[in-house]
Amino acid sequence: MGNKDLHAIYPKDDIDIDITKKENTIEILMQRYSEKVYLLAFSFVKDRGLAEDISQEVFLKTYKYLDRFRGEAAISSWIYRITVNTSKDFLKKKNLKQMLLQGRILENFNKTESTETSFLKESRNEELLQAILSLPIKYREVIILHYFYDVKVSELSTVLKLNNDTVKTRLSRGRDLLKRKIEDKEGEIF
Question: How many CB atoms lie within 10 A of CB 154?
């Protein structure tokens, strides 16, 4: 790709960097995507420490292979693909299929809410997160990428190396499973 500016090629990423300057580039990419990479990795392994390890590995790979980035997709899609692959590899290597959720991700709530409202909202978000994390991985990854990271179906297709119809089917089935899990959970309460 030479000295071409990524911003000119990928305006939707809103990145103004030169990939020939790897140190500067990796710093910018880490600032922009570290939280999203961490959360995506967490969605696979369900463990904070492991998600941090995977995040570090993702950015090491990003740095190592930055000169191989072909520009066929947005750089964010490329980084998410590395994250998905690294997370899946980690699960295979360590056989960590069902780890317990060890913490809360959604901690930033409006400080002006009453304690009860804040607790109910936090509890509801926690239940939703647990329901999402309990989905089979093929549905979990499309739900998280699409709804939390605003990745379009066409980009999901690239990131996950699936055709658009498969992505749409997984999104639909994932939503249906999630809806049933939430309805079942609400039924248990009453």
Answer: 12
Q: Which residues of 41-78 are buried (b: 16+ CB within 10 A; e: fewer)?
A: bbbbbbbbebbeebbbbbbeebbeebeebeeebbbbbb
Q: What is the pLDDT of residues 86-114, one digit of tens each?
A: 988 887 665 433 333 333 333 444 444 55
Contacts of the segment 133-137: beta carbons below 8 A, 24+ positions apart? 133/43, 133/46, 133/101, 134/181, 135/174, 135/177, 135/178, 135/181, 136/177, 137/44, 137/88
Contact 49, 100 (CB under 8 A): no
CB atoms under 10 Å from CB of 185, counted, come to 13
For 142-166, what is each residue's pLDDT tens digit? 888 888 778 888 888 888 889 999 9
> Minimal CA–CA distance to 90: which of 123, 33, 52?
52
